[in-house]
Specification:
- With 182 residues, the protein is mainly beta.
- The chain has one domain: Lipocalin (Beta Barrel).
- Helix content is 6%, strand content 49%.
- The protein is built from 1 helix and 10 strands.
- It is globular.
- It starts with a helix and ends with a strand.
Amino acid sequence: MLLALSSVSCFAQYDYAPSKKYPFGRPNPDAPEQIKDYEPMIGECKCKSYRKGTDGNWAEPVDMIWTFQYIMNGMGVQDYTLKSDGAHSGSIRQYDADSAQWYVHYYTSPLPGRAPLSYWTGNKEDGKIVLFRSQKSPQGYDGFSRLTFYDFKDTGFKWIGEWIDVGNTVVVPFWKIECKRE
């Protein structure tokens, strides 16, 4: 009898994790309020991923499924993609109240041994989630990678990856994704 009571109390600590009733989990009420920044993306969308080629033109789109869910008992957000070209990827997203920003760690199947993982930091501002990390341009100029989630609707959302110079005068998009809920 004691064993049964112990296992019940143990599982209570996972009330906000993905379950049959909540397949994408729920935000934990003890998490920072910003955990809800990703609420418009929680669930599964069918998307088109467009990357710029070395010639500067957009390549043909890659079909992908992009799934977002609450993890760590509703204290963080994970996303992952399944792409028709086999190059799957994902991120772990945690909000740090002390620094007042999101930390987003990215991983991808083509580079499984990359250590440490690439990460971006940022916040929700003006209805968009904007994340940055230092990154040189392909030509070696100092700048930033900026990732932006925007145009949130019940039917989906959009995402764009851009390189920006340190003076914020040159903006070069390198990846864009358009997602629709089914």
